[in-house]
Design a protein that fits this description.
alpha/beta, two-stranded antiparallel ribbon, 169 residues
C-alpha cells in the first residue's frame, strides 16, 4: 500500500512510502516540503494545485492527514489563513485520491500513540530512527514538518494497520 502522511501548514511536509500490509515493512520512503504559493495578498499559503500534482505522482492508496485546529492566542486573521490553508490541503487530498481515502487524525492522538509530545526535537529524533533511509533530510531544526509527516506514516504502521482500521473521510 502507498501511504502518504501530511503535516499541513506553511512549514509542513508530505511524506510517502510503500508499506507491506502483512509485515509493515517500509519501502522507499520519501519526504517533500509542502508546496506553498504567494497567490493571496503576496503572502505565502499552502498551494493546493502543487499539492494535488505531487500527490498524483505519488499515487497513494491512503493519506493520513493531521487534523489541525485553531490555536489559542492566535489572531483572527492568522487563524483564518491557517484554516483556509488546511481546507485547501484537505480538498487537494480528496481530489488527488479520487475519493474519500483520507484519514484525519488529531495531533494529540497520533503523538500520544507514538509516545511523543509537542517537542519538535523529539519528533525529529523519532523520525530519524523510524526512517533511517531519509535521515539526511531531517538534519535541521526546521525539518520538524518533514519529521511529523513521516511520523504520520509510522502512526499508520503501528496503529491503523495493526488494528485493521481504514476509517476515512
Amino acid at each position: 500500500m502507498r501511504i502518504v502522511g501530511i503535516d499541513p501548514g506553511l512549514t509542513g511536509a508530505v511524506a510517502c512510502a510503500t508499506i507491506n500490509p502483512s509485515s509493515g515493512e517500509v519501502i522507499a520512503p520519501e519526504v517533500h516540503d509542502l508546496p506553498v504559493t504567494d497567490f493571496v495578498d503576496q503572502r505565502k499559503v499552502p498551494d493546493p494545485v502543487g499539492l494535488y500534482d505531487l500527490l498524483r505522482t505519488m499515487t497513494p492508496d491512503l493519506i493520513v492527514l493531521e487534523h489541525v485546529e485553531a490555536r489559542p492566542g492566535r489572531g483572527s486573521v492568522s487563524s483564518w489563513r491557517f484554516a483556509s490553508g488546511f481546507g485547501a490541503t484537505m480538498a487537494a487530498c480528496q481530489l488527488a485520491v479520487d475519493g474519500p481515502r483520507v484519514h484525519l487524525v488529531r495531533p494529540s492522538i497520533w503523538k500520544s500513540a507514538l509516545g511523543l509530545s509537542s517537542d519538535k526535537a523529539a519528533s525529529l529524533t523519532a523520525a530519524r530512527s523510524a526512517f533511517p533511509q531519509v535521515a539526511d533530510q531531517l538534519k535541521r531544526v526546521k525539518d520538524d514538518g518533514r519529521a511529523e509527516a513521516l511520523l504520520l506514516i509510522q502512526y499508520y504502521r503501528q496503529h491503523l494497520l495493526r488494528a485493521g482500521e481504514m476509517e476515512v473521510i
